[in-house]
Amino acid sequence: MAETQIRFGILGCANIAHGVSRAMLLSPNTTISAIGSRSLEKAVAFASENHFPESTKVYGSYDDVLDDPHVDAVYVPLPTSLHLRWAVLAAEKKKHVLLEKPVALNVGELDKILAACDSNGVQFMDCTMWMHHPRTAKLKQLLSDEQRFGQLKSVHSAVTYLADDDFLKNDIRVNPNLDSLGALGDIGWYCIRAILWAHDYELPNTVTAFRNPEYHDSGVILSCGASLNWKTDGKVATFCCSFLSNLCMDIIALGTKGNFHVHDFVIPFNEKVGSFYAVDNSKWAERAVGCGPEPGVFKIATDMPQETLMIQEFGRLVAGIRSGEPKENKWPIISRKTQLVIDAVVASIKNDFVPVKVVY
Description:
It is built from 10 helices and 18 strands. By secondary structure, it is an alpha/beta fold.
């Protein structure tokens, strides 16, 4: 029997929505039922450009998408400042919510979104796509391998790209009225999520922002970083995110017996293969003229792009709720913990870079 398709509505025509809508069409258990924009002409052009099904309804407002009875779930790629309004409205209309990151401007806003999803019985998930790649599961296995990796001691992550002049003049991520978190929300989110993921989502005790973040003329952060510290086992993590450096998407995890390094964890260089380097039991050669063994290269193949796997998983969860299964609470919890760390970085910056305690 053919799998029941979850019908998506899309709120807005953001650039990121091109890839996610493609994923909806590639996923076997989802389809696109509607798209809405503030401009009907823009929605029509977006649907045509991305080869939406002829049955897709095109609207000149977001409200029309939420009022469509043939929409089961909505994808919200709107600017972060609009997330609270539209995610809450979607939940109140009993639409399941797939929300772009950063999910909110602060944890207070996110709590209102999650409360709306909870009270209306709808699934929530954020769009951190790399978590759905099979490479991520393989890396988690390595982290759990006491013989090869040992005890996790530190994680270091950097996500950067060089913004061009047009970006720095016109992009929503440098507009404080649209995405006031700037680089911290856009790509710092990935760094922080990677750090929490490696620590099994154990929150750090304190977060301390690095001094001298760089700002846009508008006051939005263009480049920043922070250190995260845990009470136990001397664990520490650092991250850097920037719109002012060459493209980088790295995670390095160091254990007592081994380590791994991923060069493209956010978006794989090849959407069909995710690679990483790993080594264990490394030693200096005699007289320190070298060391070994050399890191091995591991390549994890996938039949579907990571964004398609994300959509497929979200569709599976929604179908499960329809069948009487409970909502998956993992995703709201992970989102909230990520947002809490972002809030702590902001608080540290605003308070002369002092350590800020993180409390769930």
